[in-house]
Amino acid sequence: MSTDVLDATFAALADPTRRAILARLTAGEATVTELADPFDMSQPAVSKHLRVLERAGLITRSRDAQRRPCRLNARPLEEANRWLENYRSYWEESYQRLDALLTELKNDEDAAP
């Protein structure tokens, strides 16, 4: 994955409104009006969020008569998840070392007179 795509993905995910929009789109396509409904903001403000998500490749828009439904494109999320997996392994190893140390300390404490 190019760093530009990864940067755009994480920049888009940095905003809670955009994350909520992506969560809504996991249930299926939606129009701007439908996506704006749960937020206390104008449709133009929601449209700005949608443009950020579209530039990051996280959503696509099509035309259906007067409607322009938005759809989730999860491929950039897969790439971001793959990048994050490297750090998950790091933290799992760190926790395993911590568990081993705590077990050793507990055993030493139990063995002490």
From TrEMBL:
GO molecular function: DNA-binding transcription factor activity
Pfam family, one: HTH_20
Matching Gene3D superfamilies: Winged helix-like DNA-binding domain superfamily/Winged helix DNA-binding domain
Listed InterPro entries: ArsR-like_HTH, HTH_ArsR_DNA-bd_dom, WH-like_DNA-bd_sf, WH_DNA-bd_sf
Residue stretches making up the HTH arsR-type domain: 1-92
Protein name per its UniProtKB record: Metalloregulator ArsR/SmtB family transcription factor
UniProt organism field: Phytoactinopolyspora mesophila
